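Bumping my old thread because nobody answered last time. Still need a sequence for this structure:
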């Protein structure tokens, strides 16, 4: 599977947000998804996962989906927020709702598949940074399976970024990154103007000779886990998300 960035808001009794605040996050997310070129997946931050209630509703699944779409549009035309619409559909037993999204113990969660597109990784984190300003009473946690984020787990809080540390020996390394503002890799967007879409298969692989196959499979970074483009260097040309962060800090967490 291709590399992903995961993001979530823990349901810890301290984090909270209103339906109006989340509606603004949803609008921002929709703008990012439509404005930029995504090659493996798009932003999918949500406070719920919604499924058609096929166990209770009669008729074919296609007919139920059509009914849900029509009812959703009807409610949207009345000016209802997305969260209110989902609550109404659930009350009418048209859908089943999993609160918090895909991740257990969350108020909202999601992930974006980016593979080796470091500019898409940049866009995910830029979106989360802006979303943290819209949600001032919530901490947005994030982790990158690749190397754009140069730390295992971070949290976006009101325009600032905190590196989570669980071991005493981690603190000194985190402090060095914070002092040098080297938490996010530099990215040159021009390198990704014509970046290919992520694929899970290689066309006509069986027709390739042994040497051609070796050339194809030797470079595995199209999955994005060890992409050498995700580096921090003062000589590396690109945009720097570190400069957009209000401040960096350390947050100690229990193991």
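Sorry it took so long. Here it is:
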């Amino acid at each position: 599977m291709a590399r992903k960035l995961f993001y979530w808001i823990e349901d810890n009794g301290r984090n909270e947000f209103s339906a109006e605040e989340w509606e603004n996050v949803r609008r921002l997310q929709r703008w990012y998804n439509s404005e930029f070129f995504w090659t493996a997946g798009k932003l999918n931050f949500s406070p719920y996962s919604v499924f058609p209630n096929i166990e209770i509703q009669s008729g074919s699944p296609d007919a139920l989906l059509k009914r849900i779409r029509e009812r959703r549009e009807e409610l949207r035309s009345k000016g209802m927020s997305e969260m209110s619409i989902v609550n109404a559909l659930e009350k009418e037993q048209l859908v089943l709702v999993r609160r918090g999204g895909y991740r257990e113990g969350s108020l909202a969660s999601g992930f974006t598949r980016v593979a080796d597109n470091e500019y898409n990784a940049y866009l995910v984190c830029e979106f989360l940074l802006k979303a943290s300003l819209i949600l001032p009473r919530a901490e947005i946690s994030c982790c990158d399976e690749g190397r754009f984020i140069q730390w295992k787990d971070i949290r976006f809080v009101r325009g600032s970024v905190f590196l989570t540390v669980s071991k005493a020996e981690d603190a000194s390394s985190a402090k060095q990154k914070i002092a040098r503002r080297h938490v996010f890799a530099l990215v040159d967007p021009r390198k990704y103007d014509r970046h290919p879409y992520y694929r899970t298969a290689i066309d006509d692989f069986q027709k390739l000779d042994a040497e051609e196959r070796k050339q194809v499979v030797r470079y595995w970074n199209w999955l994005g886990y060890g992409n050498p483009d995700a580096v921090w260097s003062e000589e590396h040309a690109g945009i720097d998300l570190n400069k957009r962060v209000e401040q960096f800090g350390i947050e100690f967490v229990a193991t």
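The radius of gyration is 21 Å. Let me know if any region looks off to you.
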